[in-house]
Design brief:
Elements (H helix, E strand, L loop, with lengths): L7 E7 L5 H9 L4 E5 L3 H8 L6 H7 L4 H9 L7 E7 L10 H4 L2 E6 L2 H4 L11 H4 L1 H13 L6 E3 H6 L1 H12 L22 H4 L24 H15 L6 H4 L17 E4 L2 E4 L10 H5 L2 E9 L2 E2 L2 H14 L8 H15 L5 E8 L18 E8 L10 E5 L20 H12 L4 E5 L5 E4 L3 E6 L2 E5 L8 H12 L3 E5 L3 H5 L3 E6 L3 E8 L2 E2 L7 H16 L2 E2 L7
Parallel strand pairs: 1-3, 1-4, 2-3, 4-5, 12-13, 12-19, 16-17
Antiparallel strand pairs: 6-7, 6-11, 8-9, 8-10, 9-21, 10-11, 13-14, 15-16, 15-18, 18-19, 19-20
Helix pairs in contact: 8-12
Amino acid sequence: MEDKQEVEVIHSWSAPRSLSTSLMYSFSQRDDIEVLDEPLYANFLRVTGAERPYRDEILSNMDSDGNRVVEEMIFGPGEKRYRFCKHIAKQRVPGLSSDLMKKGKHFILIRNPLNILPSFDKVVPPSFLELGLAELVSIYSELSDLGTVPPIIDAEDLQQDPEAVLRGLCEDLDIPFQPAMLKWEAGPKPVDGLWAPWWYKSVHKSTCFKPVKEFPTPLPPSLYDLLEESLPFYNMLRKKTRRTCSVIGPSLHLPPLPVPANDKILVWVGNEIVPRDSAKVSVFDSVVQGGDAVWEGLRVYSGRVFKLDEHLDRLFDSAKALAFVNVPTREEIKKAIFKTLISNGMFENAHIRLTLTRGKKVTSGMSPAFNLYGCTLIVLAEWKPPVYDNTSGVTLVTATTRRNSPNNLDSKIHHNNLLNNILAKVEGNLAKADDAIMLDKDGYVSETNATNIFLVKKGNVLTPHADYCLPGITRATVMELVVKENLVLQEGRISLSEFHTADEVWTTGTMGELTPVIMIDGRVVGNGKVGPITRQVQNAYKNMTAELGVPIPMYTKA
């Protein structure tokens, strides 16, 4: 017999039916580890009074003093360098020594409850407490607070690529990977707990991690509510799993955000404020079913929302044109905007994407008659400086995609069905331009895929009629400023060649403000630099945004 020595303990925390026994078998194949199967089970039964078919047998044969188990069995001396302790999360009951969490190395094994619940009730009736996902979140939080953030692995990833996941886990635990972990012999094992005859029949037939089933087991309708309760906890942990390229592929690596601070924003959806990753609408919502929604873009300057009432006027006009019903009131929308901005601390340099959908449907389909829940309001506020280069200017190309005619879909309705604009933007992207000019059905310039457009010729400012384009609020503001600056303003039908030969060109929009254009279709605009009238109107616009707007309640200037 080997001499007893101090061991390094590896704690595995999981819910039932999560491949935890397979993982225990995997670790038991190592030559440097000993295994304990749920050493705290008897303590759990004693403390909770939980009924099990094997309760008496366990209490008669296992130590039910949890703290003695922690001290003598879990952290006592052993014959191998490591000791693997398989724990079920719900067995971490009150009264256990804090050493359980403070000592050793911990990791968490999770599994989608959709794959757990259909087979859960073979021994124990399923319940939220029996499933234990909330306790897993608590364990993760407590370990993180102690400064030892535990790695998390997902059973499905483990099934899909056992070697990659096990190698990654061993790396996180700072132990060498051993290929022996990938296989074991079928049948009962000496390390099995006394409950094995009730729970381990399936795993005793295995010799390795079995691939994920191509199709799931049907979920009994009686378990639907339990699934709904449990999934948020699983998803919370799933976002923190140890990802390996072999398992998820390089395409799923999280891309960097243009503004990293937007990773932690709060969003208004429906009638509540939720974190970014929880900001979702139903698959039955009309915006998903058919792009059936209206929207506005707004900017925040110095604690004020610029042109708020003008934007809300247009939002309500668009909703009326599309025959929306049960529309929130103006005051309700304003409160949602202010609450979102205040919750995020956004009082400057922020952009709001305000969306109002026709709402959720009772069943999928086109008809608004299915929309019986009322509209869905979304307030998405982001830290977002102007999206174009307003100092040096941008380049445009002309798209072959024509702007919608009012004969088809009136662009004066500020709707979410933006495929017409998106197709033009695709052309602009392919041409490596910043945006694309869109012509009307007769070949005259309408706007760009995202903005209204102006030109300067011999000191006069011209902009296309808003027959085919959205009469933008920034467009109207700039037109007002042009007049105030004692410049000549003309609206009319403007051909593409007039833009090619203009002295100056700029675009307008809430997201980009007033943006100089220095090249169109390979033709340099003017002398290729930002013109004096463009600068003049830019400055006037900047001054206006600094002075006007609806104040955000509670904002005090620093």
